[in-house]
Write the structure tokens for this entry.
Amino acid sequence: MSVSKLIFSSLLICTFIGLTSCGGNADASADETTEEATSPVNIDSLMDDQNGVVQQPPRSSYDFKEQFGAVVYQYILIKEALISNDISNLQDNGLAFVTAISNVATEEVNEAGLPIFSTQKDDMVRSLNKMINSQDIAAVRENFKDLSIAVIELQKTLGSNTPEVYLMHCPTALNGAGASWLSMDQQIRNPYGDQSCGQVMEDLTTQIQ
């Protein structure tokens, strides 16, 4: 075999098996860097251990967002009644809230979102029942905090068609425990009693495609 053919064959072998065994230390280091940069992403964390399929994030349909938008609207009315210390109006809006959440169709949520919706729906109804059946404004505010947690979670994960939704927070609400609520504008209107306390934490408006 001629010298030129031998050199050509050697180059082909090096190309096939990589330069690690054919190059020097500098070439080996370059190969290691390339291997690190091009190594495939480990998707084990995204896999369902039982089924071996990639899990989908929680999603909801346009119809769900419209239906949950009605829930958010009733939530805002409850918040406004609480700001005004209007227990009677709060109770009426609470009943309307229960009707609105009952009208949200679960088939409009994908498999990943369904357990989230079911859990938060139960929490909302439980909190509302306590609010509707109480005349103690302090107790009502405590339960409104729990109601807000559930509504905030669903707004974050599944969304609504509400034009603007902002997450607000007061760190000293409820005797220093801190509490959050949703607002349809950035004006500070604290439903927990201290009107001067609050700040906009996040814009949770759903981007409707």
